[in-house]
Structures are given as structure tokens and as C-alpha cells.
Amino acid sequence: MSRCVAFVGPSLSRARDQPFARIALLPPAEAGDLIRAVKQGARVVALIDGLFGSCRSPWHKEILWAMAEGVVVVGASSMGALRAAELGCFGMVGVGRVYSAYAHGRIHGDDEVALMHGPADMGYAPLTIPLVNLRATLAWLRRCRALDAVSIERLWVAGSSLFFKERVGDAVVECAFPGPRQAGKRRRHLALLRSSYVDIKRIDALRCLRALERIRPAARPRVGHSQINTRHLMSLLAEAERETLADGGELDRSEAFAG
Fold first, then answer.
1. What do you get for the CA distance between the two ends of the chain, in Å?
2. CB-based contacts of 205: which residues, under 8 Å, 6+ apart?
3. I want to staple 204 with a disulfide (CB 3.0 to 4.6 A). Which of 96, 111, 118, 124 is the partner?
4. How high does pLDDT run on average in the chain?
5. How far apart are CA 76 and CA 66, in angstroms?
């Protein structure tokens, strides 16, 4: 395995079209995947997309274990940004605007980055709109004065009130401007949301991968914590020992969601 790996999915669904020669691009991570990557030789690991729902999400403890092993762990864009904000005091590195928003308390909820996505053969293409992208899009429309403040507020309240599985453009505008008399307004606002869409998760993911290409792992980076191998972590380590990314086969993750 490459010494530099990144777990990516819907945040960068066309990642494999990008020329990142030094970085091995792996599917969105679930619990144990970071451990398996480290055991196969990775010394720099970027967590961008992680899974949740029908599988276990990447654990905080496995990230701490990786850093205690001297691995540089970077987070950005999605679940990686959330984990980096939570574990920054222990040495995890955060990149991008989503990470910064979590780290400085401007956003809090896990649902800010959650979305539905397609399967692997569709490149994990996003099927719903994450709140961080809706925020960025509405902020752009406000700055360029393409929408009035009342419409922006109604769209934000509508979008943030929807469950992440239901948060698509049609549903957002329908919720913001209900009723047959507002059909024309819905069409105009939907067209504007689509033409001005700001995919901040993709922007951050690309920034993270470009930063990874410049990182050279130290032999043994200083870590700011003492690792305690709990029973659950030892169980996960043993599981990772049995199943490797190379020969264990990829699990069916079609029912999981990304964040």
C-alpha cells in the first residue's frame, strides 16, 4: 500500500479522475479501515468521508492509535473535518472551511455533513444536499445579491428542517415556498440554487489532497497523548489483523450513508 492514503467518497465523487499520483484513494471509511491502512504501511492518512448507518463509523480511538503509531492523520470536508475538530488537541490535523467551522464552533451537528450517496460503481455520487453546502450556496447568493434576505432565510429554515435523506433541491424549495400560487417562485429559486451551487465539501477535499502531496511523514512525529488500549480497541485491532484492505475484500456498504 502507498505510504499516503485518503478515504474519499461523495465529497469527491470524481476523485479518481484527478492526478494524485502519490496518494492511494480508498472508499469511504468505516471502523477499522484506518487501522488496516496503517498495518499495511500507510504513514499519512486523510479521513475525508466516513460511513455511518448500517456500519460502524471510524472510531476516535483508532485515530488516536494511528497517531500514537507515528502516523500523520488529516481530516477535511466531511466526517474527517468533524473528527479533526474533536481530536485537534491530540494532534490530528484539520484542513478547509468545514473543519474551521467545526473547530471554531460556528457549526455543531453531525448532520451538517451527512448525505445520501450512490454506490461505488456510481463513484459514490451525492444524492442529497449536505447542510454545509446549502450554507455556502446561500452565503454566495447573499454576497452577490441574487436573492433577497427573506428568501434566503426561508430557504435556510426549510433546508435545515428536512431530514438529511430528504434534503434535495425540490424538497427545499417546496418547503420554503409551499402552495400552487408559488410554483413560479419555486422554479426560479430551484434554478438559482442549481446554477449557483457551492460544493464546499468538494473544495475542501481537493484542498486536503493537494496538501497531502506536500506532506513528508516524519519518522516518529510527537503526539500529544498517551494511548490507552481499551478492550474495544484491542478487539478492533484484532479484527483489522484478520481483515486487510488488500485481501479481505470490500464489504457491502450500499446501505451505509456518508458524512
1. 25
2. 8, 11, 12, 15, 48, 76, 77, 78, 96
3. 96
4. 86
5. 17
C-alpha cell at 255: 446501505
Residue 8 pLDDT greater than 50, yes or no: yes
Q: What are the Cα distances from residue 41, in Å, to 3, 63, 188, 240?
A: 6, 15, 52, 13
**pLDDT tens across 101-130, in order?**
999 999 998 889 999 999 888 889 999 999
Tell me the C-alpha distance between 241 and 13, whole Å. 29
DSSP string, 147-206: S-HHHHHHHHHHHHHS-GGG--HHHHHHHHS-SGGGHHHHHHHHHHHHHT---HHHHHHH
What residues pair up with 24 in beta bridges, in sequence order?
5
Residue 10 grid coordinates: 461523495
The pLDDT of residue 235 is: 64
Q: What is the mean pLDDT of residues 228-240?
A: 59
Alpha carbons within 13 A on the beta-carbon side of 60: 13
Residues forming a β-bridge with 163:
none
Q: How long a stretch of residues is the chain?
A: 259
